[in-house]
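User: Here's a chain of 148 residues. Predict its fold as tokens.
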Amino acid sequence: MSQKLLPPYLFLICCTAMIIFSLLFPEWVYLPRPWNNLGFIFLFGGLAMVRNIQNLFKQHQTEINTFKPPQKLVTIGLFRYSRNPIYLGFSIALFGVAIVLGNVIAFDGFLAFIIVVNLWYIPFEETEMEKQFGQDYLAYKKKVGRWF
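Assistant: Prediction complete.
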């Protein structure tokens, strides 16, 4: 496959699927208005995390694209707490979308994102990081958890 699915596109696909399935199964609502609006805290908080990391990568002039080799090992900012703060941010945002939609089936998109990230993106990235940064990355990996 010459073109690879980048994580932001997976995020958008999951959001779209969550909305569509929520519309198809309106009887599965579990969280009525206005309580579902609490999900906006998670949605915007997660997206703020993603934006923070984008700015950090830009500041350090390193590659953010999952499938391109990184130029630098970034271990500051949110990377002190999570090896994958972008995926964590997207996951928190999707959790927020599920709450905003207030529909049980919306959580399927949230779970699908986490599964794909854990089985596809993170193993690929960790292999590349080990090749690129060797012992420095392995030492970082021992200190900081995959998600948090």
